[in-house]
Design goal:
The complex is a heterodimer.
Chain A: H1 3-15, H2 17-22, E1 51-54, H3 66-71, H4 78-86, H5 104-108, H6 116-119, E2 125-129, E3 133-138, E4 143-148, E5 165-172, E6 175-181, E7 201-208, E8 213-221, E9 230-240, H7 254-263
Parallel strand pairs in A: 4-5
Antiparallel strand pairs in A: 1-2, 1-9, 2-3, 3-4, 5-6, 6-7, 7-8, 8-9
Chain B: E1 11-13, E2 34-46, E3 53-59, E4 65-71, H1 75-80, E5 93-100, E6 107-115, E7 120-121
Parallel strand pairs in B: 4-6
Antiparallel strand pairs in B: 1-2, 2-3, 2-5, 3-4, 5-6, 6-7
Classes of the chains: A alpha+beta, B mainly beta.
Chain lengths: 271, 122
């Protein structure tokens, strides 16, 4: 086969849309992409969460976690109700008009923060394990979290951070439990404007039920804001993506938020 | 809503088809009971979070031009629907079906965009 013929064949293959997509290895938007071959299933490996995990549409949480809180019968405290009323969400039961929304994430490009990145826009994320840490690398915001597994204790009086302080431990060979404190109270718990204080404590349970499935349960415990703990995620199934999946960038930048405000939301105000 | 800007408009009952994903906000500002179809010329296409948006000029019956701004979902979700940063460029002739905002401003959210060559983005 001549070089010229080979070149022509390659060019021809690239001009066929299907052929190009079949070779596409970058920016795979989700595990449901039919061109990706799911990894073989099997029993859960021992103490191993590594891989890229995708909750699909259930991870988005656009309307927030109001149903879960009501199911838990965990009403607000007086302070919690006051904080809640100040937040004007763009979605959920108290959906505000676009021009009235004061969501710090979507309107001014503040960080989503923790635990909101588990309740809203939980897009595919990668878990990496090192000898003394579990790292979680999120597609949304292109953020990462460090979960220490070296036996250290959580700080007693932490200086608040957008993503808090986290430690983790294996409860058994397939269950990894993470405790987090010290979250900045400017962030919301979810997309419906649920607030939290700096006293918030979050527990995540990652239960690897098989090779290809991980279940995530998230407990919100903030006695200053909620009268009892409640589950913001309850056994949310996460599917293992193929090892070659390359995550997209999904960054809510301040400049893009401002451009949206100028072109769209400011134009929707009632005169 | 000022009817004179809609020389080419087609009003249809709202269909059950899902709107573009708008996880950032819901439908509070939009009139979900109506859809409007407008023909115009693209002036701007922004591939942005939390919403991509398209701006296009529409010429009214009286010759005046109004610039519309209509939003879609975020780039990640639009990618899954076959949209891209290069789907539209200034000067493209487009037929846009949208749900307008309740205030009557030339703003809305996209239901579909059809290019002059017939390609449709939903």
């Amino acid at each position: 086969m001549s070089i010229r013929f080979l070149f022509a064949a390659v060019v021809a293959a690239m001009m066929v849309p299907g052929a190009v997509q079949a070779q596409q290895a970058w920016n795979v938007p989700g595990a449901t992409n039919a061109q990706l071959k799911a990894p073989p299933s099997g029993p859960a490996p021992r103490r191993d969460l590594t891989g890229v995990w995708d909750a699909g549409g259930a991870g988005i949480g656009g309307s927030g976690q109001a149903d879960e809180r009501e199911k838990a019968r965990a009403p607000f405290t007086k302070l919690g109700e006051e904080m809640f009323q100040r937040n004007k969400p763009g979605n959920g039961p108290r959906m505000a008009a676009v021009a009235e929304i004061n969501d710090p994430l979507s309107t001014i490009g503040d960080p989503s923060g923790f635990p909101r990145l588990l309740t809203f826009e939980l897009r595919p994320f990668q878990i990496v394990q090192t000898p003394n840490q579990v790292l979680m690398l999120y597609m949304f915001e292109k953020r990462w979290r460090v979960i220490w597994t070296d036996g250290r204790q959580l700080p007693k009086e932490p200086d608040p951070r957008w993503y808090g302080y986290s430690v983790g431990r294996w409860e058994d060979d397939t269950t990894f439990v993470v405790e987090s404190v010290g979250m900045d109270d400017r962030t919301w718990v979810d997309n419906s404007g649920y607030p939290h204080s700096t006293s918030l404590r979050v527990t995540e349970r990652y239960q690897r039920v098989s090779q290809n499935t991980l279940e995530l349960t998230v407990t919100i415990d903030d006695p200053l804001v909620y009268t009892k703990p409640w589950l913001a995620r309850n056994k949310l199934p996460l599917k293992l993506m193929p090892p070659g999946a390359d995550l997209m960038e999904m960054i809510p930048s301040a400049s893009e938020a401002q451009a949206y405000t100028k072109s769209i939301s400011s134009q929707t105000k009632t005169k | 809503m000022n009817a004179k800007y809609f020389g080419l408009f087609l009003l249809v009952a709202a269909l059950a088809a899902p709107a573009a994903v708008a996880a950032h906000h819901g439908a509070a500002s939009f009139d979900t009971t109506m859809e409007v179809t407008l023909k115009g010329t693209v002036t701007e296409w922004q591939w942005f979070n939390p919403h991509c948006f398209l701006k296009f000029d529409v010429k009214g019956e009286d010759g005046t031009v109004k610039n519309w701004a209509v939003e879609a979902g975020n780039p990640t979700d639009q990618t899954k629907r076959g949209w891209s940063r290069n789907s539209f460029k200034p000067g493209d002739q487009v037929t846009v079906t949208l749900q307008p905002v309740k205030t009557g401003a030339p703003v809305g959210r996209i239901r579909s965009v059809v290019l002059a060559d017939g390609r449709e983005f939903k």
